[in-house]
RNA sequence: GUCCCAGUAGCUCAGCUGGAUAGAGCAACGGACUUCUAAUCCGUAGGUCGGGGGUUCGAAUCCCUCCUGGGACGCCA
C-alpha cells in the first residue's frame, strides 16, 4: 500500500515533469505514452527505474538520454522520498529513495494485520468466478482439483483488491451424461440384485456407482425391480445425484473451497430461460433450421462453424443451456464473469463469446481461464489414469496422500496454461525440497521466536532506523511488496504470483534468521527485530491464506 | 487439415503488457550448527531462451515461418 502510493506519486511527478518540459519547449510530443516505473533487478540501478525517456524517444523525435535530461530539469527531488536520480544505460531514469521509506512499513503492517495486502481497486466490480462445475456422475479428479485451487485462489485475490466476488458451481444435472449415468446406475442396481444385465457401452464404470447402489439397496432393497425402467432410472439418478453432490461438497470443503452458489442446469430448462434465450437469438437473426435441428450462426460472431442448439429430437444441447446460464449471470448484475475451464473446453470459448455478442453483451466481460492438464508422477513414473475405465486418482485420495496444503500450493504454483507435472513424492516430502514446507517452516520459526520473546512491542515504540542490515532491509522491502503483488495477480488472473512471492519472502526470512539474531540482540535492536519478524509473520500468513494453505505455528 | 497451449540450466519451472549482465528450486560439487527450530544458510559449476527470418535504440518477451510434444475440432458435456 505504502509502496504503491509512493510509486504512483512518483509516476505522476514524472508525467508532470514531462509535460512541463513540453510547455517550456524542451520536448515535443502529442501524447505521453504509458511507461513503467519498477524496482530494477540490479541494486546499483536504484530503488525505482523509469523508462519514460525511452518510450518518448519516437514521439519526441529525440535521443532517450536527452529526453531524460529535459524531464529531470522539472522533476522535484526531495519530494516523495526521492533523494537522488541518474540517467543510466540507454536512457533509464534511476531513482534512489531515502532509505527511511521502509520505516513506514512496519506500522502499516501491524495496523492492518489480517487486512495487510488488501487494497481497493479503482473500479470495484461485481465478479462471478465459476469453477470446477464437474459432472456429478463421478468423483472429483485432478483436473477438477486444479480448477478448484485456481478458482478459489483467484476469487480470494479478486476479493482482496476490493471486488465483490461470488464463487459458483454449475451443476450439470441434466443431459446425455445424466442419461448414461441413469443407465449405469440401473445396470449396477440390477447386477447387485443378481440380474444378468450387461453394462452400457458409454456408462460410468467407477466403483463409486456400485457403492452408491449398494447403499440404496441396503435401505430399499429390490423394490425398484418391478418399476418401469424410465421411472426407475429417474429414481436412481435422483438418489445417486444427491449423494454425489453431497460428496463433492464435502470434498471441496475439506479442500478449503466453499461456494456461494450451486447453480442447477436443470433449473434453466424448468424456468424457461433456455426457451427465452433461443427466442432472443431468433429475434436477433442468429438461428436457422437444418436437418430438423436448430443451429446457431456462430460463424457470424467469430467462431469457425455453426453449432446445434436444439437437436432434431427437440432437446436443447448443453451449449444452449450454457448460453442461458451466461445470460443469467449478467442479468444478476455481474460486471465481469470468470470461468475456469479445462483445456479440453477451449474450443467452446469462441462460441460462448460469440453467443454473448449475439445477445448484445460485450464478450470481453467474460474471461475464460484455460487450464492445461495435470499429470501425476510417483517414483518418477507417470501415474496411469483413464477416466473411461474409471481408474483415476480422486481429489479425496490426493488430500489423503499429500495433504491439502501441498496440493493447493502445487496446483497454483504453475501458471494455468502450463501443463502440470505433479510430483506426489515431492509433495509428500517433509523437507526443504518441498516448497510448501519451506514456506510454512519460515512461519513456524517466527512463531517460535515470538513465543520465547514474551512481550511484543508495538511498531510505534521501536526505532526503525536500527534495522539497517542488508538482510533486514531486504525483508522490509519484500514485505512492502505484498499489496502490489496481489494487485498484479488480480489484474493478470495469475495466482501463481502469490506462491512465488511467499517463497521469496520465506527465503529472505531464512537468510535474515541466520544473519540476524533476534532474542539475544541488544535491547533496542531486539525490539525492532521482534516487530520486523512479526510483520513478516503477518505477511506470510496473509499470503498463505489467499492460497488456502495453513500457516502452522509449530512444525 | 484448422485452432489452442507448451518448448528457457541435466530435471521441474519462473520471467513474456519489449528494457540494463536471462532467474529459482532440485540434482552435482565445496563450505557453515557452543547462539532464537540445520525442515536452515553461504559458495561453485551449469544457457545457441526449439530453429530461421522480421519489427526497433533495444527481443526470452511482439510478428511471420518451420520443427517437436500435448490438447480440441460431436445433434457429447
Major sheet: arrangement of strands: 7-6-5-11-12
Helical content stands at: 40-55%
Mean pLDDT: 92
Strand content: 5-15%
In the CATH hierarchy, what is the superfamily of the domain at 432-547? Isoleucyl-tRNA Synthetase, Domain 1
Descriptive key words:
single chain, 555 residues, alpha/beta, Gyrase A, domain 2, Isoleucyl-tRNA Synthetase, Domain 1, five-stranded parallel beta sheet, four-stranded antiparallel beta sheet, 21 helices, 15 strands, 13% strand, globular, RNA-binding
Could you characterize the architecture of this molecule?
With 555 residues, the protein is of the alpha/beta class. Among the domains are: 2-97, Arginyl tRNA synthetase N-terminal domain (Gyrase A, domain 2), CATH 3.30.1360.70; 176-254, no CATH class; 432-547, Isoleucyl-tRNA Synthetase, Domain 1 (Orthogonal Bundle), CATH 1.10.730. It is 50% helix and 13% strand. The chain contains 21 helices and 15 strands. The chain has a five-stranded parallel beta sheet, with helices on both faces. It has a four-stranded antiparallel beta sheet with strand order 1-2-4-3. Strand 5, helix 6 (142-160) and strand 6 (164-171) form a beta-alpha-beta unit. Helix 17 crosses helix 20. It is globular and about 90 Å long. The model has no long low-confidence stretch (mean pLDDT 92). The structure holds one RNA strand of 77 nucleotides.
Outline the fold blueprint.
Elements: H1 2-23, E1 37-38, E2 48-50, H2 52-55, H3 57-60, H4 64-73, E3 82-88, E4 92-97, H5 105-112, E5 126-130, H6 142-160, E6 164-171, H7 176-192, H8 207-220, H9 229-254, E7 261-264, H10 265-271, H11 273-283, E8 287-290, E9 293-296, E10 307-310, H12 318-331, E11 336-342, H13 347-358, E12 366-371, E13 374-378, E14 381-382, H14 395-402, H15 404-412, E15 420-423, H16 424-428, H17 435-453, H18 470-480, H19 482-492, H20 496-515, H21 523-547
Parallel strand pairs: 5-6, 5-11, 6-7, 11-12, 13-15
Antiparallel strand pairs: 1-2, 2-4, 3-4, 8-9, 9-10, 13-14
Helix pairs in contact: 1-4, 6-15, 6-19, 7-8, 7-9, 8-9, 11-12, 14-15, 17-20, 17-21, 18-20, 18-21, 19-20, 20-21
This protein binds one RNA strand of 77 nucleotides through α7, β9, β10, α12 and α13.
